[in-house]
From TrEMBL:
Organism for this UniProt entry: Nocardia otitidiscaviarum
UniProt binding sites for Fe cation 2: 107, 161, 191, 194
Protein name: Acyl-ACP desaturase
Lineage: Bacteria, Bacillati, Actinomycetota, Actinomycetes, Mycobacteriales
Quaternary assembly: Homodimer.
Transmembrane segments: none
PANTHER family: ACYL- ACYL-CARRIER-PROTEIN DESATURASE-RELATED, STEAROYL-[ACYL-CARRIER-PROTEIN] 9-DESATURASE 7, CHLOROPLASTIC
An MF annotation (GO) of this entry: metal ion binding
Pfam families, per database record: FA_desaturase_2 (PF03405)
Length: 313
C-alpha cells in the first residue's frame, strides 16, 4: 500500500540532490552589479532641468513596454513575501538554507536594477511607481492550502521562474532600447538558472515519490497564477501584455508547461499507481482544454489586429 512521505522526509531525502545542484548553480551563476546596467547620465540630464514633475512625453518607452516593465518590477518587488514562502517550504537548514539565501540575494538585484533604470530614465512616473510598490508589498502573497507544501512549491516555482524569464526577455525586446534590452536579458539569464535548479529538484521528487509529485504538479498547473496577481492594475496590464506578445496563453502552454512536463517525463512514466494515474489523466485533459483556449485567443487577437490595421489604412 502506498504511504505518502511527509515534507520533512522529502527534504531529508533530497538534500544531497539540492547540495549537488546548488554547487552546479554556483559554478554557472555570474556575479553582476546592478549599477553597471543603468544609464546614470540620463538622470543627471533630468536633474539639470530642475527636477520637473513627470510627464509621459519624458518616456522613450511605448505604453506596452512601460506596462510590462512596471508589472515585472512590482513582481520582483514582492521578494520579502517570496522569501517567506520559500523559507517555509525549504527551511533554512543545510543546503536548502544556503540555496534560499543565495536565491534571495540574486533575485534582489532584479528589483534594484529595474527601479534604478526606470527612475533614472524617467520612463515611468516615479511617484505612481512608489505608490504601487507600497500597495503591492503590503498585500504580499500567500500560498493556498496544498497536500504537500514542498512538492507544490517546487512545481510552482519551476513554472513561475520560466514564465518570468520569458516575460523579461520579451519586455526587453518591446522596449526597443539597447540598455533596457541588455538589462532584462541579464535578469532573464538569472531566472533561467533558478528554473533549472527547481526543475532538477522536481525531477528528483518525481523519482522519489511519483504519485505525490504528479498530484502536486497537476494541482499547480491547473490553478497556476502569476505572482503579481495582487498588484494594482495587474489584470488590465496582463491583458495588454498578452495582446502584444509579452506573455500570453500560447507562450504559457508551449514555452512553459509543455517543455517542463516533457523534461519531467510526466507522460512517459511507468512508476505511477492509481492516484498518480488519475492526476496525470486530469493534467492531460487540462492541457487539451488549454490548447483550445490558446487557439481561440490567437484567432481573436488576429482578428483584432486585422481590424486595427484596416482602420489605419
Amino acid at each position: 500500500m502506498f504511504t505518502a512521505l511527509t515534507d520533512r522526509e522529502i527534504l531529508l531525502e533530497l538534500e544531497p540532490v539540492a547540495e549537488r545542484h546548488l554547487n552546479e548553480h554556483l559554478r554557472h551563476a555570474e556575479n553582476w552589479n546592478p549599477h553597471d546596467y543603468v544609464p546614470w547620465d540620463e538622470g543627471r540630464n533630468f536633474a539639470a532641468m530642475g527636477g520637473i514633475d513627470w510627464e509621459p512625453e519624458q518616456s522613450s518607452l511605448s505604453e506596452v513596454a512601460r506596462a510590462a516593465m512596471v508589472t515585472n518590477l512590482l513582481t520582483e518587488d514582492n521578494l520579502p513575501s517570496y522569501h517567506r514562502e520559500i523559507t517555509d517550504t525549504l527551511g533554512m537548514d543545510g543546503a536548502w538554507g544556503t540555496w534560499v539565501g543565495r536565491w534571495t540575494a540574486e533575485e534582489n538585484r532584479h528589483a534594484i536594477v529595474m527601479r534604478d533604470y526606470l527612475v533614472v530614465t524617467r520612463a515611468v512616473d516615479p511617484v505612481a511607481l512608489e505608490s504601487a510598490r507600497m500597495a503591492h508589498m503590503t498585500t504580499g502573497i500567500s500560498s493556498p492550502e496544498q497536500i504537500s507544501q514542498f512538492l507544490s512549491g517546487v512545481a510552482y516555482v519551476t513554472l513561475q521562474e520560466l514564465a518570468t524569464r520569458i516575460s523579461h526577455r520579451n519586455t526587453g525586446i518591446a522596449c526597443a532600447e539597447p540598455v533596457a534590452e541588455r538589462m532584462l536579458s541579464r535578469i532573464a539569464t538569472d531566472e533561467n538558472l533558478h528554473m533549472i535548479f527547481y526543475r532538477r529538484i522536481g525531477s528528483a521528487a518525481l523519482d522519489l515519490t511519483p504519485d505525490q509529485m504528479l498530484r502536486a504538479i497537476t494541482d499547480v498547473v491547473t490553478r497556476f497564477q502569476m505572482p503579481g496577481l495582487t498588484q494594482p492594475g495587474f489584470r488590465r496590464n496582463a491583458v495588454l501584455l498578452a495582446k502584444n506578445g509579452i506573455y500570453d496563453l500560447r507562450q504559457h502552454l508551449d514555452s512553459v508547461l509543455r517543455p517542463v512536463l516533457r523534461t519531467w517525463r510526466v507522460f512517459d512514466r511507468t512508476d505511477l499507481s492509481g492516484e498518480g494515474e488519475r492526476a496525470r489523466e486530469e493534467l492531460h485533459a487540462y492541457l487539451e482544454d488549454l490548447e483550445v483556449k490558446a487557439r481561440r485567443f490567437e484567432e481573436q487577437r488576429d482578428r483584432a489586429l486585422a481590424r486595427a490595421a484596416a482602420a489605419v489604412g
